[in-house]
Design brief:
Layout lengths: L1 H19 L5 E2 L6 E11 L3 E10 L7 E8 L2 E4 L1 E2 L4 E9 L33 E8 L2 E8 L2 E2 L4
């Protein structure tokens, strides 16, 4: 009986640790044909800049597919539809320069704020994006490799 009291908790811990490191699997094909995936960088004076990411489909998106998020260049954002075949996400960056107090006495640097580094779910190269979507209420991930950078018109 004592053996079972030791084995059962160890078995439960082993199974729970097995599921901790699960990573989402990428789908090799998207359920519908993607016509193009591209992004455009923009700058609004000195105050802000950003990237608009577009995904265009050859046909209207099926009723059982819903685009959720796009992960691109260490950012994640909810996707919004423009028209039936085109979806977009707008990544904004404020170009605020913080003044740092630098002094030979470290106690005088007390007011400096540490940078906020956001980590997304995926380790992506600069030329990769991940599309999160739901098909029949099940979540899938599709990796977009080499989206095209188009200049603003």
């Amino acid at each position: 009986m004592k053996g079972y009291k030791r084995i059962i908790p160890l078995f439960i811990i082993a199974i729970s640790l097995n599921f901790c490191a699960m990573k989402p699997e990428f789908q090799t094909e998207f359920p519908q044909e993607i016509q193009s995936a591209f992004y455009q960088k923009w700058v609004d004076g000195k105050q802000s800049s950003g990237i608009d990411f577009y995904i265009e489909f050859k046909k209207s998106l099926a009723a059982n597919i819903k685009l959720e998020k796009i992960y691109f260049q260490n950012q994640e954002l909810v996707i919004k539809g423009i028209v039936k075949n085109t979806f977009t996400a707008h990544f904004y960056k404020e170009n605020k320069k913080e003044d740092f107090i630098l002094h030979k006495d470290p106690s005088k640097e007390y007011g400096n704020k540490a940078p906020v580094i956001q980590k997304t779910k995926f380790d992506l190269k600069p030329n990769e994006a991940v599309l999160e979507y739901k098909k029949d209420d099940k979540t899938y991930f599709f990796k977009i490799i080499n989206p095209i950078e188009k200049p603003l018109r």
